[in-house]
Amino acid sequence: MASYHTYLYEMKILVTGILLSSRLICSSAFASSRSSSSLRPRLFSSASTTLDMSNNKRVLVPIADDSEEIETSCIQDTLVRFGAEVVVASVKPGGELVCKMSRGLKVVADVSIDEAVNQSWDLIALPGGMPGAEHLRDCTALISLLEKQKADGKFYAAMCAAPAVVLASKGLVGDGATCYPAPGLREKMSSPADEDVVVQGNVVTSQGPGTALKFAIKMGELLYGAEKAKQIADEMLVS
């Protein structure tokens, strides 16, 4: 009888040992699997995200009280469709972000111009509107940014009143640019053109609300190429 009990005890020890060994093997395999999987590249890694973002262009759209709302929204909306990061900056004093546009629409800017001034931009695009364009002209930080764009050979653009009131008054545009076809504005320009949109190197100018979509698509073409511009124009039903 004692021999039988001894046999059961030995068998219990054997089975316990087998179970413990199995657990250790499984735990080791699981840990190895966890370790190896953590070394595998993820489908959406930060590197791939950075690569996708590297083609994005950064566009600054400065606004003020009495800036033209059709032009502002056309620039912002269209260039976002191209894939650009578009940042609207208020030039109002004290960092005030809410601007009352020329027809009463209130727009909340993303940042103040002071927050934008030390950043790098692929394009700075100015809407028109009066006296909104005068507020843009009188903003020292914005003029510094535009002068830097010119010095660096980067794109900057203006439409409606802004080519005459801002660019021409600061020596930032040459002969043959265009603006809103009003005598008081055209007189400020040197040999103003009658075209809807004029491209002169890294400077783009346009006439007014009715040409805003064409203006925005042209800027998108300069940043992203003709093929992308045709795609966006077709999607927006622009002939």
Q: What tags apply to this protein structure?
A:
239 residues; seven-stranded mixed β-sheet; 10 helices; 49% helix; 15% strand
What do you see in this structure?
With 239 residues, the protein is an alpha/beta fold. The chain has helices at 2-39, 46-53, 69-82, 113-116, 132-137, 140-152, 162-167, 183-186, 212-224, 226-235, and strands at 58-63, 85-90, 98-100, 106-108, 111-112, 123-126, 155-159, 197-200, 203-206. Helices cover 49% and strands 15% of the residues. The strands form 2 sheets. Strands 5-2-1-6-7-9-8 form a 7-stranded mixed beta sheet, with helices on both faces. Strands 3-4 form a two-stranded antiparallel ribbon. α3 packs parallel to α9 (212-224) and α9 packs antiparallel against α10 (226-235). The longest helix has 38 residues, at 2-39. The protein starts with a helix and ends with a helix.
